[in-house]
Amino acid sequence: MILNASRRVAWLLLALSLLANGCNKRHGLQIDDPVPAVTLPDWHGKPVNLPGDLQGKVLLIRFWSLECTFCDKEMLLELETLYQKYKARGFVPVAVNAGKTDPNDPRLQRFANLTYPMLMDERGLVGRRFGVIGMPTSFVIDKEGVLKQKITGEAGLDEFEKLVTTVLY
Q: What does the record list as coiled-coil region(s) (predicted)?
């Protein structure tokens, strides 16, 4: 009887230890982590190195998908407005489409006039390195390549502008 109680306590302690270690496990980027160096192709197949090619800029990296029902596709158009407003101060949005998408898909035509980088993460490997577990997910990166804000889910343009200007200034 005492042996059974001791075993139960030992199993309970083991289970609690495993649970506690699992809860403390860090997934993806955390605030004040440096952003990993990655390379992704743009819609035309040209490779873009992040954050290297945009070094010294404040970045808003937005992971989204053309197939995502939760992703506000209009936000990509609105980010162009934010880009035009703050690009002289060193701000660049970067849209990363997760999943395989045909660049000739007619649904992409509405984004053809965007002047900021539109990248493709066909296998989701970069998203995993960043710790993206749902879309949309957005990251605000400072001029030194360090994560300053992370937003899982949708946000409005006003919220993005507030986050970006906080890091810019």
A: none
Query: What is the amino acid identity at position 8?
Result: R
Share of the chain above pLDDT 90, in %: 73
CA distance 73 to 64: 8
DSSP-assigned beta bridge partners for residue 64: 97
Tokens 């934010």, residue located: 82
The predicted model scores a pTM of: 0.82
**For 92-106, how does the pLDDT look when each residue is reduced to its tens digit (9 = 90+)?**
999 999 998 887 889
Within 8 A by CB and 6+ apart from 92, the residues are: 54, 57, 58, 59, 60, 83, 116, 117
For residue 129, the domain's CATH number is 3.40.30.10
